[in-house]
Design a protein that fits this description.
This protein is an alpha/beta fold. It has one domain: 3-Layer(aba) Sandwich (Rossmann fold). The strands form two sheets. Strands 5-2-1-6-7 form a five-stranded parallel beta sheet, sandwiched between helices. Helix 3 crosses helix 5. It is globular. About 4% of the residues have low confidence.
Length: 150
């Protein structure tokens, strides 16, 4: 039987990830579990035929600060729900960071929102949730968001 002591919830500050976090809080309250709320972001690199543009340290620092502020606000807004929440900010390929934090935090379950992208937007943006499902050994609960264009 699945023991739920620690739940990992990756967020991207979208309505869909907010819904996933709220669902995870409900689960955690029923099982007495704690939640690690993770935001993983990738520093932009732009490729050109003659080279690449890598984001400077000052821009990277601003991205990190802004992400940390949003993550802290997201967690603070849900503190009154009675579930222990820990915020973690990581820089790197999101699905790889999710896998890494799942292992280091001892997560029993990953609850992740899925945007339902299709076609070109899915091909260009990829699917973090899909990569997590394919690579993790943990159970994953996906929370569907609205489909693009609906």
């Amino acid at each position: 039987m699945l023991q739920l002591r620690r739940i990992l919830v990756p967020v991207d500050f979208s309505e869909t990830s907010d819904r996933a976090l709220d669902e995870a809080i409900e689960l955690a309250s029923k099982f007495g579990a704690t939640i690690t709320v993770l935001h993983a972001y990738q520093i932009p690199v732009y490729g050109f035929p003659d080279g690449a543009f890598i984001t400077g340290a000052d821009i990277a620092s601003q991205l990190s600060s802004a992400a940390q502020q949003r993550l802290d606000a997201l967690v603070q807004a849900r503190r009154a729900k009675g579930v222990e929440l820990t915020a973690v900010l990581r820089s790197g390929v999101p699905w790889e960071e999710i896998d890494a934090v799942a292992k280091t935090s001892g997560a029993d379950l990953i609850v992740i929102g899925t945007h339902g992208r299709r076609g070109l937007s899915r091909a260009l943006l990829g699917s973090v949730a899909e990569n997590v499902i394919r690579t993790t050994t943990l159970p994953v609960l996906t929370i569907k968001g609205p489909h693009e264009g609906s």
